[in-house]
Amino acid sequence: MDELIFPKKEWRLTNEQEELCNLSKNLGSKRFSKRAFKYDSEASFPVENYKDLAEKGLLGICVPKKYGGFGADLKTYMLAAAEIGRYCGATALTFNMHVSSCLWTSFLIDDLKLDEEIKIEHERLRSEHYKRIIQDGKIYAQPFSEGGAAAAGFKAFGTNALKVPDGWLVNGKKIFASLSGHADYYGVLCSAIRKKDECGSRKNTMYLAVPKNADGVSVEGDWDPLGMRGTVSRTLVFRDVFVSEKEQLMPAGVYPEAAARWPHMFMTLTPAYMGIAQAAFDFTIKYLRGEVEGMAPVKRRMYPTKQLAVAEMKVMLEQTKAIWFQAISEAGPDPSKESLMRAYAAQYTVMENSNKLTQLALRTCGGQAMLKTLPLERLYRDSRCGSLMLPWTAELCLDKLGTSTLYEEGESD
Questions:
Q1: Which domains are present in the chain?
Q2: pTM to 2 decimals?
Q3: Would you give the DSSP letter of residue 182?
Protein backbone atom coordinates (compact mmCIF):
# COMPACT_ATOMS: atom_id res chain seq x y z
CA MET A 1 0.00 0.00 0.00
CA ASP A 2 1.36 3.42 -0.97
CA GLU A 3 2.22 5.88 1.78
CA LEU A 4 0.51 9.29 1.72
CA ILE A 5 2.21 11.90 -0.45
CA PHE A 6 2.38 14.08 2.66
CA PRO A 7 2.61 11.76 5.70
CA LYS A 8 1.04 13.16 8.86
CA LYS A 9 4.10 13.09 11.12
CA GLU A 10 6.64 14.67 8.77
CA TRP A 11 4.27 17.30 7.36
CA ARG A 12 2.39 17.91 10.63
CA LEU A 13 -1.07 17.24 9.28
CA THR A 14 -4.14 17.36 11.47
CA ASN A 15 -6.13 14.21 12.20
CA GLU A 16 -8.83 15.45 9.82
CA GLN A 17 -6.33 16.06 7.02
CA GLU A 18 -4.85 12.59 7.44
CA GLU A 19 -8.31 11.01 7.49
CA LEU A 20 -9.43 12.69 4.26
CA CYS A 21 -6.11 11.97 2.53
CA ASN A 22 -6.36 8.29 3.46
CA LEU A 23 -9.98 8.14 2.31
CA SER A 24 -9.00 9.65 -1.05
CA LYS A 25 -5.91 7.45 -1.41
CA ASN A 26 -7.83 4.27 -0.70
CA LEU A 27 -10.47 5.13 -3.30
CA GLY A 28 -7.78 6.01 -5.80
CA SER A 29 -5.57 2.98 -5.33
CA LYS A 30 -8.34 0.38 -5.06
CA ARG A 31 -10.83 1.71 -7.63
CA PHE A 32 -9.79 4.77 -9.66
CA SER A 33 -6.43 3.41 -10.83
CA LYS A 34 -8.11 0.34 -12.32
CA ARG A 35 -10.47 2.46 -14.44
CA ALA A 36 -8.07 5.19 -15.56
CA PHE A 37 -6.97 3.39 -18.74
CA LYS A 38 -10.58 3.02 -19.92
CA TYR A 39 -11.48 6.68 -19.35
CA ASP A 40 -8.32 7.83 -21.10
CA SER A 41 -8.60 5.54 -24.13
CA GLU A 42 -12.30 6.27 -24.64
CA ALA A 43 -12.17 9.94 -23.62
CA SER A 44 -15.13 9.04 -21.43
CA PHE A 45 -16.22 10.68 -18.17
CA PRO A 46 -15.34 8.83 -14.91
CA VAL A 47 -18.97 8.22 -13.93
CA GLU A 48 -18.14 5.26 -11.67
CA ASN A 49 -15.54 7.30 -9.81
CA TYR A 50 -18.10 9.99 -9.04
CA LYS A 51 -20.47 7.39 -7.67
CA ASP A 52 -17.67 6.32 -5.33
CA LEU A 53 -16.96 9.93 -4.33
CA ALA A 54 -20.65 10.43 -3.54
CA GLU A 55 -20.83 7.17 -1.57
CA LYS A 56 -17.92 8.25 0.65
CA GLY A 57 -19.33 11.76 1.13
CA LEU A 58 -16.43 13.39 -0.70
CA LEU A 59 -18.70 15.43 -2.98
CA GLY A 60 -19.23 17.46 0.18
CA ILE A 61 -15.58 17.66 1.22
CA CYS A 62 -15.70 21.48 1.32
CA VAL A 63 -19.36 21.85 2.30
CA PRO A 64 -19.49 23.29 5.85
CA LYS A 65 -20.12 20.75 8.59
CA LYS A 66 -23.39 22.41 9.63
CA TYR A 67 -24.76 21.45 6.20
CA GLY A 68 -23.56 17.85 6.46
CA GLY A 69 -20.19 18.12 4.70
CA PHE A 70 -16.63 17.55 5.88
CA GLY A 71 -15.98 21.30 6.16
CA ALA A 72 -12.46 21.05 4.72
CA ASP A 73 -10.54 24.25 4.12
CA LEU A 74 -8.52 24.87 0.96
CA LYS A 75 -5.32 23.26 2.24
CA THR A 76 -7.09 20.13 3.46
CA TYR A 77 -8.94 19.74 0.18
CA MET A 78 -5.75 20.23 -1.86
CA LEU A 79 -3.91 17.53 0.08
CA ALA A 80 -6.77 15.05 -0.37
CA ALA A 81 -7.23 15.89 -4.06
CA ALA A 82 -3.54 15.26 -4.75
CA GLU A 83 -4.09 11.67 -3.62
CA ILE A 84 -6.88 11.34 -6.20
CA GLY A 85 -4.67 12.82 -8.93
CA ARG A 86 -2.06 10.21 -8.14
CA TYR A 87 -4.37 7.49 -9.48
CA CYS A 88 -6.56 9.33 -12.01
CA GLY A 89 -5.62 12.81 -13.10
CA ALA A 90 -8.87 13.42 -15.00
CA THR A 91 -10.96 12.59 -11.94
CA ALA A 92 -8.92 14.95 -9.75
CA LEU A 93 -9.13 17.75 -12.31
CA THR A 94 -12.89 17.50 -12.77
CA PHE A 95 -13.36 17.05 -9.00
CA ASN A 96 -11.75 20.47 -8.62
CA MET A 97 -14.45 21.99 -10.82
CA HIS A 98 -17.12 20.58 -8.51
CA VAL A 99 -15.38 21.38 -5.23
CA SER A 100 -14.56 24.96 -6.23
CA SER A 101 -18.29 25.68 -6.28
CA CYS A 102 -18.31 24.75 -2.58
CA LEU A 103 -14.99 26.42 -1.69
CA TRP A 104 -15.90 29.73 -3.24
CA THR A 105 -19.33 29.85 -1.65
CA SER A 106 -18.30 28.78 1.87
CA PHE A 107 -15.35 29.93 3.96
CA LEU A 108 -13.77 31.90 1.10
CA ILE A 109 -16.73 34.24 0.77
CA ASP A 110 -17.19 34.33 4.56
CA ASP A 111 -13.76 35.96 4.80
CA LEU A 112 -14.98 38.91 2.72
CA LYS A 113 -17.23 40.25 5.50
CA LEU A 114 -20.30 41.02 3.37
CA ASP A 115 -23.05 43.39 4.39
CA GLU A 116 -25.40 41.63 6.80
CA GLU A 117 -28.36 41.70 4.40
CA ILE A 118 -26.31 40.20 1.55
CA LYS A 119 -24.82 37.64 3.92
CA ILE A 120 -28.25 36.45 5.08
CA GLU A 121 -29.46 36.09 1.48
CA HIS A 122 -26.31 34.21 0.48
CA GLU A 123 -26.73 31.88 3.46
CA ARG A 124 -30.25 31.07 2.33
CA LEU A 125 -29.22 30.41 -1.26
CA ARG A 126 -26.11 28.35 -0.59
CA SER A 127 -27.97 26.07 1.81
CA GLU A 128 -30.07 24.89 -1.16
CA HIS A 129 -26.98 24.15 -3.27
CA TYR A 130 -25.34 22.25 -0.42
CA LYS A 131 -28.53 20.28 0.15
CA ARG A 132 -28.48 19.10 -3.46
CA ILE A 133 -24.88 17.94 -3.10
CA ILE A 134 -25.15 16.24 0.29
CA GLN A 135 -28.62 14.74 0.08
CA ASP A 136 -29.03 14.18 -3.65
CA GLY A 137 -25.45 13.63 -4.80
CA LYS A 138 -25.63 16.40 -7.39
CA ILE A 139 -22.47 17.38 -9.24
CA TYR A 140 -21.53 20.98 -9.99
CA ALA A 141 -19.16 22.10 -12.73
CA GLN A 142 -17.32 25.37 -13.16
CA PRO A 143 -16.94 26.29 -16.85
CA PHE A 144 -14.49 29.16 -16.97
CA SER A 145 -12.74 29.70 -20.30
CA GLU A 146 -14.26 31.51 -23.25
CA GLY A 147 -11.34 31.64 -25.66
CA GLY A 148 -10.43 35.22 -24.74
CA ALA A 149 -8.82 37.18 -21.92
CA ALA A 150 -11.71 36.97 -19.45
CA ALA A 151 -10.54 33.78 -17.73
CA ALA A 152 -7.12 35.34 -17.15
CA GLY A 153 -8.79 38.30 -15.44
CA PHE A 154 -8.08 40.91 -18.10
CA LYS A 155 -11.63 41.68 -19.29
CA ALA A 156 -15.30 41.01 -18.60
CA PHE A 157 -16.80 37.60 -19.28
CA GLY A 158 -18.45 37.41 -22.69
CA THR A 159 -21.27 35.23 -21.39
CA ASN A 160 -24.06 37.60 -20.33
CA ALA A 161 -26.93 37.36 -17.84
CA LEU A 162 -29.76 39.71 -18.80
CA LYS A 163 -31.98 40.64 -15.85
CA VAL A 164 -35.60 39.62 -16.35
CA PRO A 165 -38.45 39.15 -13.84
CA ASP A 166 -37.54 36.47 -11.26
CA GLY A 167 -34.14 35.74 -12.77
CA TRP A 168 -31.83 36.10 -15.77
CA LEU A 169 -31.53 35.07 -19.40
CA VAL A 170 -28.05 33.66 -20.00
CA ASN A 171 -26.39 33.80 -23.42
CA GLY A 172 -22.86 32.82 -24.37
CA LYS A 173 -20.50 29.89 -24.43
CA LYS A 174 -17.73 28.29 -22.42
CA ILE A 175 -14.93 26.28 -24.02
CA PHE A 176 -12.88 23.53 -22.36
CA ALA A 177 -15.90 23.08 -20.08
CA SER A 178 -15.02 20.03 -17.99
CA LEU A 179 -17.90 17.71 -17.02
CA SER A 180 -19.95 18.89 -20.02
CA GLY A 181 -23.04 16.73 -20.22
CA HIS A 182 -22.26 15.04 -16.89
CA ALA A 183 -22.60 17.75 -14.24
CA ASP A 184 -26.09 18.44 -12.89
CA TYR A 185 -25.41 22.18 -12.61
CA TYR A 186 -22.94 24.44 -14.42
CA GLY A 187 -21.51 27.19 -12.20
CA VAL A 188 -21.28 29.89 -14.86
CA LEU A 189 -19.35 33.13 -14.43
CA CYS A 190 -21.07 35.77 -16.53
CA SER A 191 -21.59 39.52 -16.83
CA ALA A 192 -24.87 40.91 -15.46
CA ILE A 193 -26.55 43.36 -17.84
CA ARG A 194 -29.84 45.30 -17.84
CA LYS A 195 -30.23 45.75 -21.61
CA LYS A 196 -29.46 43.36 -24.46
CA ASP A 197 -26.95 45.69 -26.13
CA GLU A 198 -25.20 46.62 -22.88
CA CYS A 199 -21.50 45.84 -22.54
CA GLY A 200 -20.58 43.73 -19.54
CA SER A 201 -18.02 44.70 -16.91
CA ARG A 202 -15.99 42.63 -14.47
CA LYS A 203 -17.43 44.50 -11.50
CA ASN A 204 -20.88 43.11 -12.42
CA THR A 205 -19.77 39.48 -12.65
CA MET A 206 -22.44 36.96 -11.68
CA TYR A 207 -21.91 33.36 -10.59
CA LEU A 208 -24.98 31.31 -11.45
CA ALA A 209 -25.85 27.60 -11.24
CA VAL A 210 -27.35 26.74 -14.62
CA PRO A 211 -29.31 23.44 -14.54
CA LYS A 212 -28.03 20.86 -16.99
CA ASN A 213 -31.47 20.24 -18.51
CA ALA A 214 -32.57 23.86 -18.77
CA ASP A 215 -34.00 24.90 -22.15
CA GLY A 216 -31.31 26.45 -24.32
CA VAL A 217 -28.33 24.56 -22.82
CA SER A 218 -26.38 22.47 -25.32
CA VAL A 219 -23.09 20.59 -25.37
CA GLU A 220 -21.31 20.86 -28.69
CA GLY A 221 -18.15 19.75 -30.48
CA ASP A 222 -15.83 16.78 -30.08
CA TRP A 223 -13.34 15.96 -27.34
CA ASP A 224 -10.18 14.23 -28.51
CA PRO A 225 -7.23 15.99 -26.76
CA LEU A 226 -3.65 15.03 -25.99
CA GLY A 227 -4.26 14.39 -22.30
CA MET A 228 -6.81 14.71 -19.48
CA ARG A 229 -9.18 12.98 -21.87
CA GLY A 230 -11.59 11.82 -19.17
CA THR A 231 -12.54 15.40 -18.30
CA VAL A 232 -14.85 15.51 -21.37
CA SER A 233 -14.38 19.26 -21.68
CA ARG A 234 -16.63 19.96 -24.64
CA THR A 235 -18.09 23.39 -25.45
CA LEU A 236 -21.13 24.58 -23.50
CA VAL A 237 -23.52 26.91 -25.32
CA PHE A 238 -26.28 28.97 -23.65
CA ARG A 239 -29.07 30.40 -25.79
CA ASP A 240 -31.66 32.43 -23.85
CA VAL A 241 -31.40 30.09 -20.87
CA PHE A 242 -33.67 31.23 -18.05
CA VAL A 243 -32.01 30.94 -14.64
CA SER A 244 -34.06 31.75 -11.56
CA GLU A 245 -32.86 34.06 -8.79
CA LYS A 246 -32.50 31.13 -6.38
CA GLU A 247 -29.63 29.78 -8.53
CA GLN A 248 -27.12 32.44 -7.47
CA LEU A 249 -23.93 30.85 -6.19
CA MET A 250 -22.40 34.16 -5.18
CA PRO A 251 -23.96 37.60 -4.61
CA ALA A 252 -23.84 39.87 -7.66
CA GLY A 253 -20.56 41.74 -8.04
CA VAL A 254 -18.75 39.84 -5.27
CA TYR A 255 -16.63 37.62 -7.55
CA PRO A 256 -14.13 40.36 -8.57
CA GLU A 257 -13.47 41.13 -4.89
CA ALA A 258 -13.07 37.42 -4.10
CA ALA A 259 -10.66 36.94 -7.02
CA ALA A 260 -8.57 39.94 -5.96
CA ARG A 261 -8.51 39.24 -2.23
CA TRP A 262 -8.35 35.40 -2.29
CA PRO A 263 -5.97 34.69 -5.22
CA HIS A 264 -4.93 31.27 -3.83
CA MET A 265 -8.36 30.07 -4.94
CA PHE A 266 -6.87 29.79 -8.44
CA MET A 267 -4.35 27.17 -7.30
CA THR A 268 -6.99 24.45 -7.05
CA LEU A 269 -5.97 22.96 -10.41
CA THR A 270 -2.56 21.98 -9.01
CA PRO A 271 -3.47 18.94 -6.84
CA ALA A 272 -4.13 16.82 -9.93
CA TYR A 273 -0.60 17.53 -11.15
CA MET A 274 1.01 17.14 -7.73
CA GLY A 275 -0.54 13.68 -7.73
CA ILE A 276 0.76 12.94 -11.23
CA ALA A 277 4.27 13.96 -10.19
CA GLN A 278 4.15 11.51 -7.29
CA ALA A 279 2.67 8.79 -9.50
CA ALA A 280 5.52 9.09 -12.01
CA PHE A 281 8.06 8.70 -9.24
CA ASP A 282 6.15 5.78 -7.67
CA PHE A 283 6.00 3.92 -10.97
CA THR A 284 9.70 4.41 -11.65
CA ILE A 285 10.66 2.93 -8.27
CA LYS A 286 8.38 -0.09 -8.71
CA TYR A 287 9.60 -0.63 -12.28
CA LEU A 288 13.28 -0.56 -11.36
CA ARG A 289 12.66 -2.85 -8.39
CA GLY A 290 10.74 -5.31 -10.57
CA GLU A 291 7.50 -4.79 -8.63
CA VAL A 292 5.06 -3.58 -11.32
CA GLU A 293 1.91 -5.67 -11.20
CA GLY A 294 1.50 -7.87 -14.29
CA MET A 295 5.14 -7.62 -15.35
CA ALA A 296 7.98 -10.09 -14.89
CA PRO A 297 9.92 -9.33 -11.67
CA VAL A 298 13.05 -8.12 -13.47
CA LYS A 299 15.22 -5.76 -11.40
CA ARG A 300 16.97 -2.83 -13.07
CA ARG A 301 17.99 -0.91 -9.99
CA MET A 302 21.65 -2.00 -9.98
CA TYR A 303 22.70 0.26 -12.87
CA PRO A 304 24.38 3.57 -11.88
CA THR A 305 22.54 5.45 -14.64
CA LYS A 306 19.20 4.38 -13.15
CA GLN A 307 20.29 5.29 -9.64
CA LEU A 308 21.41 8.77 -10.70
CA ALA A 309 18.16 9.37 -12.56
CA VAL A 310 16.11 8.34 -9.53
CA ALA A 311 18.17 10.66 -7.34
CA GLU A 312 17.45 13.53 -9.75
CA MET A 313 13.75 12.69 -9.70
CA LYS A 314 13.72 12.56 -5.90
CA VAL A 315 15.30 16.01 -5.61
CA MET A 316 12.81 17.49 -8.08
CA LEU A 317 9.84 15.83 -6.37
CA GLU A 318 10.85 17.06 -2.91
CA GLN A 319 11.40 20.59 -4.21
CA THR A 320 7.95 20.54 -5.81
CA LYS A 321 6.25 19.20 -2.70
CA ALA A 322 7.95 21.72 -0.44
CA ILE A 323 7.02 24.89 -2.30
CA TRP A 324 3.50 23.65 -3.00
CA PHE A 325 2.87 22.69 0.63
CA GLN A 326 4.15 26.07 1.83
CA ALA A 327 2.00 27.97 -0.66
CA ILE A 328 -1.23 26.16 0.24
CA SER A 329 -0.42 26.51 3.94
CA GLU A 330 -0.33 30.31 3.50
CA ALA A 331 -3.62 30.47 1.60
CA GLY A 332 -5.97 33.12 2.91
CA PRO A 333 -7.46 36.52 2.18
CA ASP A 334 -5.28 39.53 1.38
CA PRO A 335 -1.90 37.76 1.05
CA SER A 336 1.32 39.74 1.13
CA LYS A 337 3.18 40.38 -2.11
CA GLU A 338 5.75 37.74 -1.19
CA SER A 339 3.06 35.18 -0.40
CA LEU A 340 1.31 35.82 -3.71
CA MET A 341 4.56 35.50 -5.65
CA ARG A 342 5.24 32.23 -3.83
CA ALA A 343 1.82 31.02 -4.98
CA TYR A 344 2.71 31.87 -8.60
CA ALA A 345 6.06 30.12 -8.18
CA ALA A 346 4.38 27.06 -6.67
CA GLN A 347 1.81 26.91 -9.47
CA TYR A 348 4.54 27.13 -12.11
CA THR A 349 6.72 24.57 -10.34
CA VAL A 350 3.99 21.95 -9.98
CA MET A 351 2.74 22.29 -13.53
CA GLU A 352 6.20 22.22 -15.13
CA ASN A 353 7.84 19.69 -12.83
CA SER A 354 5.05 17.15 -13.12
CA ASN A 355 5.87 16.96 -16.82
CA LYS A 356 9.63 16.98 -16.26
CA LEU A 357 9.28 14.10 -13.81
CA THR A 358 7.25 12.03 -16.26
CA GLN A 359 9.86 12.73 -18.95
CA LEU A 360 12.62 11.52 -16.64
CA ALA A 361 10.53 8.50 -15.69
CA LEU A 362 10.04 7.51 -19.33
CA ARG A 363 13.70 7.90 -20.15
CA THR A 364 14.79 6.01 -17.05
CA CYS A 365 12.37 3.11 -17.33
CA GLY A 366 13.00 2.67 -21.04
CA GLY A 367 11.06 1.36 -24.03
CA GLN A 368 8.39 -0.74 -22.31
CA ALA A 369 7.29 2.26 -20.24
CA MET A 370 5.87 4.00 -23.31
CA LEU A 371 3.32 1.26 -23.93
CA LYS A 372 -0.29 2.23 -23.29
CA THR A 373 -0.75 -0.87 -21.17
CA LEU A 374 1.31 0.89 -18.49
CA PRO A 375 0.26 4.16 -16.81
CA LEU A 376 3.40 6.21 -17.47
CA GLU A 377 2.46 7.06 -21.05
CA ARG A 378 -0.86 8.47 -19.81
CA LEU A 379 0.82 10.36 -16.97
CA TYR A 380 3.17 11.97 -19.49
CA ARG A 381 0.32 13.20 -21.69
CA ASP A 382 -1.82 14.35 -18.76
CA SER A 383 1.09 16.21 -17.17
CA ARG A 384 1.77 18.28 -20.29
CA CYS A 385 -1.67 19.90 -20.05
CA GLY A 386 -1.13 21.60 -16.69
CA SER A 387 0.97 24.53 -17.90
CA LEU A 388 -1.78 25.54 -20.34
CA MET A 389 -4.57 25.98 -17.82
CA LEU A 390 -6.10 29.37 -17.10
CA PRO A 391 -6.23 31.54 -15.16
CA TRP A 392 -2.62 30.88 -14.08
CA THR A 393 -0.86 29.34 -17.06
CA ALA A 394 2.90 28.81 -16.80
CA GLU A 395 3.49 31.81 -19.06
CA LEU A 396 1.24 34.08 -17.00
CA CYS A 397 2.93 32.95 -13.76
CA LEU A 398 6.35 33.89 -15.16
CA ASP A 399 4.99 37.22 -16.38
CA LYS A 400 3.51 38.03 -12.97
CA LEU A 401 6.68 36.97 -11.15
CA GLY A 402 8.95 39.04 -13.37
CA THR A 403 6.80 42.14 -13.22
CA SER A 404 6.10 41.90 -9.48
CA THR A 405 9.79 41.44 -8.67
CA LEU A 406 10.99 44.43 -10.69
CA TYR A 407 8.14 46.85 -10.05
CA GLU A 408 6.36 48.08 -6.95
CA GLU A 409 2.68 48.96 -7.19
CA GLY A 410 2.16 52.11 -9.26
CA GLU A 411 5.65 52.12 -10.81
CA SER A 412 6.16 52.27 -14.58
CA ASP A 413 8.80 53.22 -17.12
A1: 8-138 (1.10.540.10), 160-253 (2.40.110.10), 262-406 (1.20.140.10)
A2: 0.96
A3: T
